[in-house]
């Protein structure tokens, strides 16, 4: 199976780039592999967050003011 790739230019902070190069060398992976893994992990996290929002859509809502009043009422503020 052949994986299609697309080229892109990414600008890293100098220290972040140095750390990424060291990690690549220590893990025997390329910079591209590490960046792709990190992006995939971020997208999975986004997908999980969206699912959690969907699960909670029917929960009752409370305003910020009501939350503060409730915290004060119960001695937490």
UniProtKB/TrEMBL annotation:
Cited InterPro entries: Arc_rbn_hlx_hlx (IPR013321), Ribbon_hlx_hlx (IPR010985)
Record-linked Gene3D superfamilies:
Met repressor-like (1.10.1220.10)
Could you mention a single GO BP entry for this protein? regulation of DNA-templated transcription
Q: Which domain of life is it from?
A: Bacteria
SUPFAM superfamilies per the UniProt record, alphabetical? Ribbon-helix-helix
Question: This chain belongs to which protein, by name?
Answer: CopG family transcriptional regulator
Q: What is the lineage of its organism?
A: Bacteria, Pseudomonadati, Pseudomonadota, Gammaproteobacteria, Cellvibrionales
